Structure formats: structure tokens, C-alpha cells
Amino acid sequence: MFSKGQLIFAGLFVIAFTIAMIWSYRKDIKIHKKHYKNSFIVIIAMFLIIAIFTLITFSLH
Hints:
mainly alpha
């Protein structure tokens, strides 16, 4: 399905991408704390809306 070279490239790409994302997040952590301090409320609201829609959908069937 995939050649050995493609698998090696995919593995190295995933490792490099993960390291770059961690480095970028650590660099901007002060900005994230300043601008996104109450973002968990949005996540909770999204899960509640999905749960409500799921309950409505299953209760109508």
C-alpha cells in the first residue's frame, strides 16, 4: 500500500509537526492566557447544545 520511504516520511513529518506545534504554543502561552482566559465556557456551551440536539433527536424517534 505505502512504500517504506513514504512511511518513513510520514513518521518524520508527524514528529516534526508535533514539535513545531508544541514550540509555537509555548512561545505564545502568555498571549493565550491574556486573550483566551474564559474559552472553556464556549466549549461547555458547545457540548451542551450538541447534547440537547441529540436528546431532541432521539426523543422524536
